[in-house]
Every structure is written in structure tokens, then in C-alpha cells.
Design brief:
Helices cover 60% and strands 15% of the residues. The protein is α/β, with parallel strands linked by helices and 280 residues long. Strand 6 and strand 7 (264-269) form a beta hairpin.
Length: 280
């Protein structure tokens, strides 16, 4: 466990297993290289998050990246989240470019540079898969949240990630060439993705409550920029939960309440509904 700029970095048990396997197989240099690549990848996320005004509490390193615990207090817009997610693979791209320059300049250890570039390529491409909590999954979810209500984005992106994680496990269990066997590393990662996404799906109500609690930042942004509020039309008998689940991530809402005849009874700002939901 290490601390960098006040952020706690730790190793996930899956990374510890990979470390032990590397030591047993005499691949310590490869392990050290992998650790360095993953750390630089995550530092890219951390720097992008800090520049976006997001507080990063801790980062847990995995063999293919990491999981960051952040506190955004409503400051993390969809576009900022996409930028933070892409900052990690960008570091892999820069490392590949640096290694290529050294290789072109005639650096002696060509085999190591080839391994270094290949490892960066694999980590970058794997992280760009549209599966949570990978970078590609975060980009996909953030992009979807621009088009549909935030609750629907959380729900359906989570479900898609569970299915995709199962497909990763199935791929890992397919016979490996003519020798049979399984892809053990891919299998461990697939099992982790399934566990992570099932746990995240169970925590969806808490994530949505946190989203509602941070709606004050959206109101402040709406008042500061003078952007248009997005209307939500609902019958007076519609449950409060159902109306709140229509809120979109980066937009402020006015709710037009209709009676049974379709006439507007009231126009309610969203913070009044949120206050009612929390009993304030």
C-alpha cells in the first residue's frame, strides 16, 4: 500500500495472485513492467480527475488497470467522466510511442521494448471494452446517460456489463488451440468482472440516491449558465420514484403536473421533488 499526492494506492487480491504466479514462473521483470504500466495508466486517470475538480480518495490496482474511489459532489459531468476514463488508455498510447521512438533510435534491448509495447497495447485495448468497471464501460455509460435518464443508463449498462462479463468467462473456458486447457488469466479477470458488476447492480439504489443528493450542483450550474430546463410531463397520480427516475444527468428539470383531463395543474422545480423524496 502506497500513498501518492494524498491518494491511497493498494493492490487488489487478483493482482497479488498474478504476482505470486509471476514469481513462481521466474517472470519478475515482466511483473515489474506490468506494475509500472498499470500504475502510470491509473495516474493518468488520477491527474485527469484532479484537473476536473474531482476528489480521488483511493485507487486499487488490478492486472489490467484499477478501480478508483472518487467523491465528485455533482461536479462530474458526463463529458468529464469520459475524459477521465480515456486518460488511462492515453497513457498507454504515450508509452507505446515512447518505446517505439527508442526502438527506432536503435536501443539495444529490442526484445524488452517489444514486450513493453505489446503489454501496453493489450492493457489499453482490454480497458476500452464496453464493460464496467473498465474504461470503455465508463465511457459507454457516460455517453448513454447523455441520451436517456440517468437511472436507465445505470440499469441497462449494468445489465449489459453482466452479460458481457459472462461472455468473457465463456471465451476463457473455450479450448486453447490443439493443446486444450483454459486461458487462466482471462478467466480470473472474467470472474472479477462478473462479481464487480453483480455487486454494482445490487448497489444501484444507493448510487441513484447519491445522484439525487448531488442535484444541487446541477441547479447551481443551471442558474449560472442560464441554460434551458428540460420539462418532464407527469400525471398527478404518477409515483414520485417514477418521476425522479426520468431525471437526466446534466440537465435541470421542471415537472409539469397534469390532471386526468390533461390540463396543467402545477409546474414544480425538481428540487422540490427531491426535497419531498428525502422528507426535507
Amino acid at each position: 500500500m502506497i500513498r501518492i499526492v494524498g491518494i491511497q494506492f493498494s493492490l487488489h487480491p487478483l493482482f497479488v495472485i498474478v504476482m505470486l504466479l509471476s514469481v513462481l514462473t521466474g517472470q519478475f521483470l515482466e511483473l515489474l513492467t506490468l506494475f509500472t504500466i498499470v500504475l502510470i495508466h491509473e495516474l493518468g486517470h488520477v491527474c485527469a480527475a484532479l484537473l476536473s475538480g474531482v476528489t480521488v480518495k483511493s485507487v486499487q490496482l488490478l492486472p489490467f488497470g484499477g478501480v478508483a474511489v472518487i467523491e465528485d459532489h455533482g461536479k462530474l459531468t458526463a463529458y468529464r467522466e469520459i475524459g477521465i476514463a480515456l486518460a488511462g488508455p492515453l497513457q498507454n498510447g504515450l508509452m507505446i510511442l515512447s518505446a517505439y521512438v527508442l526502438q527506432s533510435a536503435g536501443y539495444e534491448n529490442n526484445a524488452f521494448l517489444s514486450y513493453f509495447m505489446g503489454a501496453n497495447m493489450i492493457i489499453a485495448l482490454f480497458n476500452l471494452l464496453p464493460i464496467l468497471p473498465l474504461d470503455g464501460g465508463k465511457v459507454f455509460q457516460a455517453a448513454v446517460s447523455l441520451l436517456v435518464p440517468y437511472y436507465s443508463a445505470l440499469l441497462w449498462c449494468g445489465r449489459i456489463s453482466v452479460v458481457a462479463s459472462v461472455l468473457v468467462v465463456i471465451y476463457a473456458l473455450l479450448p486453447l488451440g490443439t493443446t486444450g486447457g483454459v486461458r487462466l488469466n482471462v478467466l480470473m479477470i472474467g470472474v472479477f468482472l462478473i462479481y464487480s458488476n453483480i455487486t454494482d447492480h445490487r448497489n444501484l439504489p444507493y448510487r441513484f440516491v447519491a445522484f439525487l443528493m448531488n442535484r444541487g450542483a446541477v441547479y447551481e450550474r443551471y442558474m449560472r449558465t442560464g441554460t434551458f430546463a428540460r420539462p418532464i410531463v407527469a400525471l398527478s397520480a404518477k409515483p414520485l420514484d417514477d418521476i425522479l427516475r426520468l431525471f437526466k444527468r446534466n440537465q435541470y428539470h421542471f415537472i409539469y403536473v397534469l390532471n386526468n383531463e390533461g390540463n396543467v395543474m402545477a409546474v414544480v422545480p425538481e428540487q422540490r421533488l427531491v426535497s419531498s423524496y428525502f422528507g426535507i
